[in-house]
Amino acid sequence: IEPRAAIQWQMNDRQTLSASVGLHSKPEHLATYIFDGTLPEGDVHTPNRNLEISKAMHAVLGYDHGLSPNLRLKLEAYYQQLYDIPIEATPGSTASVLNSFDIWDIIGADSMNNDGFGRNYGLDLTLEKFFSDQYYFLITGSLYESNFKANDQKWHNTRFNGNYQLTALAGKEFKVGKKKQNIIGLNGKFIISGGNRFTPVDLEASRAAGEWINFDDRPFESRSSTYWRFDLGFSYKINKKKTTHSIMLDIQNVANRFNEYGRYYDEDTQQIEVWTQQGLFPNFNYRIEF
Questions:
Q1: Residue 68: which residues within 8 A CB-CB, separation 6 or more?
Q2: Is residue 115 within 8 Å of residue 97, measured between CB atoms?
Q3: What is the rounded average pLDDT for all residues in the chain?
């Protein structure tokens, strides 16, 4: 049973206040529950078969202001309390399903329980110009905090706690041709956000052991450099009597910036190295509709 409630106050023709609260739940990846292992005596066991599903309480307060018929400002404050989160049962462990990227992160924990917690809260701002007069734009910004608590009973940053993000995109269309039936489109998008969180590498221990070793008691304490990217798109649509031809070129990461993804210990150099994400990536597309 997941009760939810919402209320909205229409202050006037252009302004609205809203509030909502509710309980939500979701199962984790199936591997979380069916992972099995072999005991020293040879018996197969499934320690996580009876785990509860993850749960959360959401609360949102919103303000919506129609600045003009085609321009809207929206502000939202939110808080999310997570509980019954699967975590590794080993005393002092900092492993939580909240930081998993894929099933290998999840099934790395031999035995789990539902004693984990998490919390997310922040402020979102949106300024949106709907498509009119042949152009549009959208600006969204977010300030937020994302934490988790595992078996060490301490609050830590989650892997995804970038703390801020700003996205701005805009587009413009131009009608061309003798009858103005063809359309040239230009679109751009800019993104900037806090870098990925990662657990710092224990350089001395890694050198001594000859392999990558982290400070496991300091999960996601470090952060990569600021992430930013600029994308640019061009399109040309030819409208004929029975067919429409569309030529599109999208260039992601126009500046060819190799954003930092994380850091690792390189056994060959015996140093902490940086791995990066992909640089410039063009994508060309042609489509015919009839």
A1: none
A2: no
A3: 92
Q: What per-residue confidence (pLDDT) applies to 258?
A: 95
How far is it, in rounded angstroms, from Cα 54 to Cα 63? 29
Q: What is the DSSP string of 213-270?
A: -B-TTSTT-EEPPPEEEEEEEEEEEEE-SS-EEEEEEEEESTT----EEEEEEETTTT
| DSSP codes of every residue in 9-43 | EE-SSSEEEEEEEEEEEE---HHHHH--EE-TTS-
b/e 184-219 (16+ beta carbons within 10 angstroms → b): ebebbbbbebbbbbbbebbeeebeeeeeebbeeeeb
Amino acid present at 278: Q
Q: Report CA 53 to chain centroid distance, whole Å.
A: 21
Residue 47 — pLDDT band, cuts 50, 70, 90? confident
Q: How confident is the model at residue 234 (pLDDT cuts 50, 70, 90)?
A: very high
- Mean pLDDT to the nearest integer, 238-262: 94
pTM for this one? 0.85
Q: 98: closest CA among 33, 159, 35, 156?
A: 159
* Spatial contact of 248 and 233, defined as CB atoms under 8 Å apart: yes
As beta bridge partners, residue 229 has 191
CB 155 within 8 A of CB 82: no
